[in-house]
């Protein structure tokens, strides 16, 4: 299967992508991984991306599309792939269609993870990270530490990242609504969109997604 995964920040796309890719036996292709791999390997596209990033500029669509195209052409993606974080806007979606058409391929589904905006804010703004080890992550509601502000694992101080503040989360949601959400209507016109609720436990959402994709 060839799938695009879409949803607002805080919808759990990365978590669900990993589970779905494993269940479907297809590679999980995330924008972040593409950038890291190309930059670390010093590819032509990676060097271009790094130059823009070092200058504080957004990486142009054509660079991102080029990285995605190269990855989709690798042997492990012959039977399908799951795209996470790409396409990010309608222009990228149109470019992806062109790439797939040139390779005589097409998407099978666009999985839309639906989460109410207030829940997104609650999920992200409630995160607390350990200053000693960023892998120790807690949540004021869903995974509260035994002692407020103290890491259960090492006793380090827990803090809220600037990126996780409610103000920042709401700005990120505005960007999502403006730039990325329109691709849902773009793909709905192609009868590809499958929308599921991303509320509940991780395994419940995965089961819901697998059921919807099988249909």
From TrEMBL:
<dbReference type="InterPro" id="IPR006259">
    <property type="entry name" value="Adenyl_kin_sub"/>
</dbReference>
<feature type="binding site">
    <location>
        <position position="161"/>
    </location>
    <ligand>
        <name>AMP</name>
    </ligand>
</feature>
<dbReference type="InterPro" id="IPR007862">
    <property type="entry name" value="Adenylate_kinase_lid-dom"/>
</dbReference>
<keyword id="KW-0547">Nucleotide-binding</keyword>
<feature type="domain" description="Adenylate kinase active site lid">
    <location>
        <begin position="127"/>
        <end position="163"/>
    </location>
</feature>
<feature type="binding site">
    <location>
        <begin position="10"/>
        <end position="15"/>
    </location>
    <ligand>
        <name>ATP</name>
    </ligand>
</feature>
<dbReference type="Pfam" id="PF05191">
    <property type="entry name" value="ADK_lid"/>
</dbReference>
<protein>
    <recommendedName>
        <fullName>Adenylate kinase</fullName>
        <ecNumber>2.7.4.3</ecNumber>
    </recommendedName>
</protein>
<feature type="binding site">
    <location>
        <position position="127"/>
    </location>
    <ligand>
        <name>ATP</name>
    </ligand>
</feature>
<dbReference type="InterPro" id="IPR000850">
    <property type="entry name" value="Adenylat/UMP-CMP_kin"/>
</dbReference>
<dbReference type="GO" id="GO:0016301">
    <property type="term" value="F:kinase activity"/>
</dbReference>
<feature type="binding site">
    <location>
        <position position="172"/>
    </location>
    <ligand>
        <name>AMP</name>
    </ligand>
</feature>
<feature type="binding site">
    <location>
        <position position="36"/>
    </location>
    <ligand>
        <name>AMP</name>
    </ligand>
</feature>
<feature type="binding site">
    <location>
        <begin position="137"/>
        <end position="138"/>
    </location>
    <ligand>
        <name>ATP</name>
    </ligand>
</feature>
<keyword id="KW-0067">ATP-binding</keyword>
<feature type="region of interest" description="NMP">
    <location>
        <begin position="30"/>
        <end position="59"/>
    </location>
</feature>
<keyword id="KW-0545">Nucleotide biosynthesis</keyword>
<comment type="subunit">
    <text>Monomer.</text>
</comment>
<dbReference type="InterPro" id="IPR033690">
    <property type="entry name" value="Adenylat_kinase_CS"/>
</dbReference>
<keyword id="KW-0418">Kinase</keyword>
<feature type="binding site">
    <location>
        <begin position="85"/>
        <end position="88"/>
    </location>
    <ligand>
        <name>AMP</name>
    </ligand>
</feature>
<comment type="pathway">
    <text>Purine metabolism; AMP biosynthesis via salvage pathway; AMP from ADP: step 1/1.</text>
</comment>
<keyword id="KW-0963">Cytoplasm</keyword>
<comment type="similarity">
    <text>Belongs to the adenylate kinase family.</text>
</comment>
<feature type="binding site">
    <location>
        <position position="31"/>
    </location>
    <ligand>
        <name>AMP</name>
    </ligand>
</feature>
<feature type="binding site">
    <location>
        <position position="92"/>
    </location>
    <ligand>
        <name>AMP</name>
    </ligand>
</feature>
<dbReference type="InterPro" id="IPR027417">
    <property type="entry name" value="P-loop_NTPase"/>
</dbReference>
<feature type="binding site">
    <location>
        <position position="200"/>
    </location>
    <ligand>
        <name>ATP</name>
    </ligand>
</feature>
<dbReference type="Pfam" id="PF00406">
    <property type="entry name" value="ADK"/>
</dbReference>
<comment type="function">
    <text>Catalyzes the reversible transfer of the terminal phosphate group between ATP and AMP. Plays an important role in cellular energy homeostasis and in adenine nucleotide metabolism.</text>
</comment>
<feature type="binding site">
    <location>
        <begin position="57"/>
        <end position="59"/>
    </location>
    <ligand>
        <name>AMP</name>
    </ligand>
</feature>
<keyword id="KW-0808">Transferase</keyword>
């Amino acid at each position: 299967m060839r799938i695009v995964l879409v949803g607002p920040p805080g919808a759990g796309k990365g978590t669900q992508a990993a589970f779905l890719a494993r269940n479907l036996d297809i590679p999980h292709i995330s924008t972040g991984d593409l950038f890291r791999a190309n930059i670390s390997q010093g590819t032509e596209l990676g060097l271009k991306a790094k130059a823009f990033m070092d200058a504080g500029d957004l990486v142009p669509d054509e660079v991102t599309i080029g990285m995605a195209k190269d990855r989709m052409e690798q042997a492990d993606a012959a039977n399908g792939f799951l795209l996470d974080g790409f396409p990010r806007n309608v222009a990228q979606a149109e470019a992806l269609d062109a790439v797939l058409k040139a390779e005589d391929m097409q998407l099978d589904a666009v999985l839309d993870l639906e989460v109410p905006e207030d829940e997104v804010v609650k999920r992200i703004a409630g995160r607390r990270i350990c200053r000693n080890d960023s892998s120790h992550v807690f949540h004021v509601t869903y995974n509260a530490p035994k002692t407020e502000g103290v890491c259960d694992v090492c006793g380090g101080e827990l803090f809220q990242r600037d990126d996780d503040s409610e103000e920042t989360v709401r700005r990120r949601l505005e960007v999502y609504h403006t730039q990325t959400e329109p691709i849902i209507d773009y793909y709905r016109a192609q009868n590809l969109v499958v929308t599921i609720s991303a509320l509940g436990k991780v395994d419940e959402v995965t089961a819901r997604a697998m059921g919807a994709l099988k249909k």
